[in-house]
């Protein structure tokens, strides 16, 4: 997800699908300048605005039941159409997109899902397979102290800046959280946090909010095609 307003543009840009691909990833165009934009990289790749970055906005890819628990008063965009997923077979077959993979990497199966983090000058991936057995990962990517949280039941991964008031907190999983939510407790203050929203709900820091970090949920082959040198987090167990 990206913001579509720019300081030097009088109105927000509106985007459409160009029909082009870069390494199997969507290429958008904006209707104001016909510039082409890489959806994966979030940057203009051809046209009047070439080189202009889009501002990433943190978002959460999850199932409807989990979203409703987190945001019971949410508004839904319903444009009609299919309710089933037309790509369900593609998720499990052996193909690598329309164009095939450019950088085969056997550390994971090509169709394994990973949670990818892109920060200025640094990228890192976390496999769903490892996160399923390690649902809370306190880590550092570049200069960024972060915590990755994964709900295996909903196949949902998020990441937060784990620095609060200048101090990096260390989080552990808590299972008995009200409302059937995945919970965290920080070792430094004992505060209880909602794991998928990053909100402190009980304790010394109650009311505090962790800043969400933009992540990309993507197939392994797609991630390594763009970031072949990026490290893959390895489970300690």
Explain how this protein is built.
With 237 residues, the protein is mainly β. The chain has helices at 64-70, 128-133, 220-226, and strands at residues 15-22, 25-30, 36-38, 43-46, 113-119, 122-127, 136-141, 144-151, 156-161, 163-164, 167-168, 171-174, 183-186, 192-194, 199-202, 212-213, 215-219. The strands form 5 sheets. Strands 1-2-3-4 form a 4-stranded antiparallel β-sheet, with no helix packed on it. It is globular, with a radius of gyration of 19 Å.
Main sheet strand line-up:
1-2-3-4
Residues in β-strands, percent? 25-35%
Question: Which spans of ≥5 residues are poorly predicted at pLDDT below 50?
Answer: none
Based on CA atoms alone, the radius of gyration comes out at 19 Å
Global shape: globular
Tell me the total number of β-strands. Answer: 17
Distance between the termini: 33 Å
Q: Helical residue percent?
A: under 10%
Overall average residue pLDDT? 90
SSE string = EEEEHEEHEEEEEEEEEEEH
Counting DSSP H or I runs of 4 or more residues, the number of helices is: 3
Broad structural category: mainly beta
**Describe the biggest sheet?**
4 strands, antiparallel
């Amino acid at each position: 997800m990206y913001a579509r307003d720019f300081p030097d543009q009088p109105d927000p840009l509106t985007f459409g699908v160009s029909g082009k691909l870069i390494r199997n990833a969507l290429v958008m165009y904006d209707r104001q300048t016909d510039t082409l934009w890489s959806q994966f990289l979030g940057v203009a790749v051809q046209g009047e605005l070439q080189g202009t970055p889009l501002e990433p906005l943190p978002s959460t890819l999850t199932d409807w039941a989990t979203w409703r628990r987190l945001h019971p008063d949410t508004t839904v965009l319903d444009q009609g159409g299919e309710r089933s997923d037309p790509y369900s077979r593609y998720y499990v077959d052996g193909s690598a997109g329309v164009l095939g993979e450019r950088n085969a990497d056997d550390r994971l199966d090509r169709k394994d899902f990973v949670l990818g983090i892109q920060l200025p000058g640094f990228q890192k991936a976390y496999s769903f397979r490892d996160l399923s057995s390690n649902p809370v990962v306190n880590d550092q990517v570049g200069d960024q102290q972060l915590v990755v949280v994964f709900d295996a039941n909903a196949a949902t991964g998020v990441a937060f800046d784990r620095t609060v008031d200048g101090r990096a907190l260390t989080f552990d999983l808590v299972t008995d959280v009200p409302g059937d939510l995945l919970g965290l407790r920080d070792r430094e203050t004992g505060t209880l946090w909602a794991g998928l929203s990053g909100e402190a709900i009980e304790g010394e820091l109650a009311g505090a909010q962790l800043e969400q970090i933009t992540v990309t949920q993507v197939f392994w082959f797609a991630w390594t095609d763009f970031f072949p040198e990026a490290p893959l987090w390895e489970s300690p167990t």
